[in-house]
Specification:
The protein is an all-alpha fold. The chain is built from five helices and no strands.
Length: 86
Amino acid sequence: MLARKEAELTMESNPQSINQELLQYFPQRTLEAINGKRRNQEYKDMVEEFLEELRNPDIITTEENEENKEDQGDVFLNYLEFLTQP
């Protein structure tokens, strides 16, 4: 994914010509297409999320992980209920 690779490249070396760097990894895209995609706010937000994950790998930021926490809580509560049954 383009946004993830941009985040990785930014963390590794913060290249000055990121569009040219991304073109090396995504040769099926044109330079203009990469530049246009990078102007999109949704894309910029995704890059920021990936950068945050790379900076803080121990922090859970996705909704899926939040749902997993809830599922784990349910499993624990079910287990406690099971233990208290006659």
